[in-house]
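P.,

For your records, the input lines for the assembly:
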Amino acid sequence: AQRVTQPEKLLSVFKGAPVELKCNYSYSGSPELFWYVQYSRQRLQLLLRHISRESIKGFTADLNKGETSFHLKKPFAQEEDSAMYYCALRQAGTALIFGKGTTLSVSS
Amino acid sequence: EPEVTQTPSHQVTQMGQEVILRCVPISNHLYFYWYRQILGQKVEFLVSFYNNEISEKSEIFDDQFSVERPDGSNFTLKIRSTKLEDSAMYFCASRGPSYEQYFGPGTRLTVT
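Structure tokens returned:
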């Protein structure tokens, strides 16, 4: 069965520190993976899609099929990065399967 | 920038009552979705809707649930006879020709 695992509920870092939010998936086909972010009192919004291989707000994510991972990284965290981050997998249709989410807290 | 809107923001209902949650997707989008998030748990897919019919649904979306696009703008989720375990945040999303799903702010449903 398709599944997305985010092992950390909370990740606390200091401003300027590197960040890595972990995401592992299980999917039998060719996965399409996303990172969504939810800032305080705002709606879920797309941050990254693995196919586009972009860097958004300094964040990058690389799909590692061997390790079935799609970790989200940023070399230098900013306070405004504090939010809830969800890794999601698009299954065969168009629906998204989400992980439980990781709260990133960046303090000065 | 166009946004998905949802009403109400919070709905309180008694067990056994019917509720209708409303969504207005982005106007030129063709794919519509409902997700829910029980407190402390993950966001779960319920149903997708395209071309005036359900295209996918999850195991959660049983006979108690239905969706409708009654006019050109609204997209509704009806729960026929609510149960305590239906208490959750319900998110609507819509998608245009690209892959990106745009989410609404959610409706918090509390069943007492």
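Two observations worth noting. Chain B has a mean pLDDT of 94. The radius of gyration of chain B is 13 Å.

Regards
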